[in-house]
């Protein structure tokens, strides 16, 4: 498995400021890119505790990071919702920085075959953990119209949530919805024609960039619901602050307004409790150069804070 260059890598390192022999936690190690960047800075004895929920990706990572395993990388197959428990179990102390990169990994989109991408015909799975009983297929085939509309609106911020939910219900009366391509066609039928191809302004100097695909918000809503992503983030952030040593830093990269709002409100609360100070007054976004190289990064926002 090739190591992909992660989103906002330079900015992550600038915020975490890894120094020799310091310890860090990568709560969403995914393909290992941020971890490798940290390891370049925190040698010779600094360590990274990497957490990966997906057992298949975890196995690939063990092979990819085999040079560092045991010596400087501790890799665990678990959920970051169990952050405190993992740290205690691994006896991982004196933590100088914690990173959450909440974006979907390239591996999940391109190689997992679990229906994360609307650009491929794959089963409607969308689970990070195959032991999870809930799949996207179960949602679209068995949940009620109000339930589907609610997650599309709440977790996808989809303006045509009701129309899409109604079209899903009507389609499944004829035959089950089993693949991503079926779902894309259903969404396309449900939304107005102008919604099929949108463009969004991006700075006058750069003209226009292609906007979100019409299926993006529905797929986002299903993925978030299947994996309970928002609740998991709310559970993990307080644990991260407790684990950090004074002066330690937390960095969170979010990819949609729902995640960013959770992080923003959490930081605001901890400032009021005099537990942290903000490192960047406004969230950091990728440069146009990075967006051009990696269009998926365009919605990324980085927020960082230091524990007092």
List the helices and strands and how they pair.
Layout: H1 9-16, E1 23-26, H2 33-39, E2 48-52, H3 55-64, E3 73-77, H4 83-89, E4 95-101, H5 106-110, H6 136-142, H7 145-154, H8 161-172, H9 180-190, E5 199-201, E6 208-210, H10 216-227, H11 229-243, E7 244-254, H12 257-272, E8 276-278, H13 288-293, E9 301-307
Parallel strand pairs: 1-2, 1-4, 2-3, 4-7
Antiparallel strand pairs: 5-6, 7-9, 8-9
Explain this structure.
With 308 residues, the protein is an alpha/beta fold. The protein has two domains: 9-107 and 229-307, 3-Layer(aba) Sandwich (Rossmann fold), CATH 3.40.50.150; 121-227, DNA polymerase, domain 1 (Orthogonal Bundle), CATH 1.10.150.170. 41% of the residues lie in helices and 16% in strands. It has 13 helices and nine strands. Helix 8 (161-172) crosses helix 9. The longest helix has 16 residues, at 257-272. Residues 199-210 have low confidence and may be disordered.
Please outline the major beta sheet.
7 strands, mixed
How does the helix and strand content classify structurally? alpha/beta
Give the tally of β-strands.
9
CATH-defined architecture of the largest domain: 3-Layer(aba) Sandwich
Widest beta sheet: strand line-up: 3-2-1-4-7-9-8
Using only C-alpha atoms, the radius of gyration works out to: 20 Å
Q: Count helical runs.
A: 13
Quick check: average pLDDT? 92
Name the overall outline: globular
User: Which superfamily, in CATH terms, is the homologous superfamily of the largest domain?
Assistant: Vaccinia Virus protein VP39
According to CATH, what is the topology of the largest domain? Rossmann fold
Would you identify the regions where 5 or more consecutive residues have pLDDT less than 50?
199-210
Report strand %: 15-25%
Number of structurally distinct domains: 2
Work out the helicity level.
Answer: 40-55%
Assigned CATH class of the largest domain:
Alpha Beta
The end-to-end span amounts to 39 Å
Order of helices and strands: HEHEHEHEHHHHHEEHHEHEHE
């Amino acid at each position: 498995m090739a190591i992909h260059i992660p989103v906002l890598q330079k900015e992550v390192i600038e915020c975490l400021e890894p120094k020799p022999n310091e310890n860090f936690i990568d709560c969403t190690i995914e393909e290992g890119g941020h971890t490798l960047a940290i390891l370049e800075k925190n040698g010779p004895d600094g360590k990274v505790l990497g957490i990966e929920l997906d057992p298949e990706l975890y196995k690939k990572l063990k092979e990819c990071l085999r040079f560092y395993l045991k010596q400087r990388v501790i890799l665990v197959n678990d959920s970051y919702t169990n952050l405190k428990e993992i740290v205690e179990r691994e006896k991982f102390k004196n933590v100088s920085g914690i990173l959450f990169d909440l974006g979907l990994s390239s591996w999940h989109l391109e190689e997992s075959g679990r229906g994360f991408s609307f650009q491929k015909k794959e089963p409607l799975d969308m689970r990070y953990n195959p032991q999870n009983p809930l799949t996207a297929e179960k949602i679209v085939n068995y949940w009620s119209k109000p339930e589907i509309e609610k997650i599309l609106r709440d977790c996808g911020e989809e303006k045509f949530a009701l129309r899409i939910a109604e079209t899903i219900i009507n389609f499944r009366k004829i035959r089950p919805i089993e693949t991503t391509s079926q779902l894309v066609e259903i969404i396309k039928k449900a939304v107005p024609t102008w919604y099929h191809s949108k463009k969004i302004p991006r700075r006058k100097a750069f003209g226009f960039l292609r906007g979100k695909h019409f299926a993006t918000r529905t797929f986002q809503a299903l993925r978030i619901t299947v994996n309970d992503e928002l609740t998991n983030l709310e559970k993990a952030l307080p644990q991260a602050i407790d684990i950090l040593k004074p002066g330690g830093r937390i960095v969170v990269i979010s990819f949609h307004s729902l995640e960013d709002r959770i992080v923003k409100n959490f930081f605001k609360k901890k400032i009021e409790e005099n537990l942290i100070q903000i490192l960047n007054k406004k969230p950091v976004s990728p440069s146009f150069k990075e967006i051009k190289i990696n269009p998926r990064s365009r919605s990324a926002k980085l927020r960082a804070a230091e524990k007092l």
